[in-house]
Structures are given as structure tokens and as C-alpha cells.
Task: structure prediction
Amino acid sequence: MHAAIAIAGLAAGIAAVTAATAASATDEASTRTSIAVASAAALVAAQCVEVAERMGADRDHMAAVVSSAVNVRSAGDIMTLRASADTCEYLDLFTRSHRR
Result:
């Protein structure tokens, strides 16, 4: 569940950054590419939110994670979200392997 929450945040952040990139793109090809990446990232975020909620994640917590991620401003912010997702995924795998 924690990994799904973290990935939802990361995908929401990527969607926000690429949407902003599309808005400031100077040529049509860059705009289309940025819009496509933003759309794909938004779809991944939505799917992760749905999975996390099915696993028991609190709706208010999910809203806070996505809202925070949408406010990213730099590549460093995206890297922080990625590190969080990596850590959560590792912890989920570690927890599952030690339950056996």
C-alpha cells in the first residue's frame, strides 16, 4: 500500500511538471510530447490512488499526497518523490518477504 501511495505521488508530480512544460513549449512537437507524457503520468497516478484506496489507504491521506506532489517545482522535488517511492517499494518487499 505504501508503495502505491508513493508511486501515485511521483506520477502526479511528473504529470504536473510535464503539463507545465507543455504550457511553455515553443514548438508543436514538444507540446504534443509533453501533453502525452503528462496524460500518461496522470493515468498512472489515478490507477495507483485507486489501488492504494482498495488496500485501505485513507482518502484524505491520498488527497494530501497528490496535492503535495502536484506542487513540485524542481527536478530535486521529483527526485525526492522518486526516493520516497523507492524506499516504500523496498520496505513493502522487505515486509512481505519476512512474513513467510
Remarks:
- The two ends are 18 Å apart (CA to CA).
- Residues 2-98 form one domain.
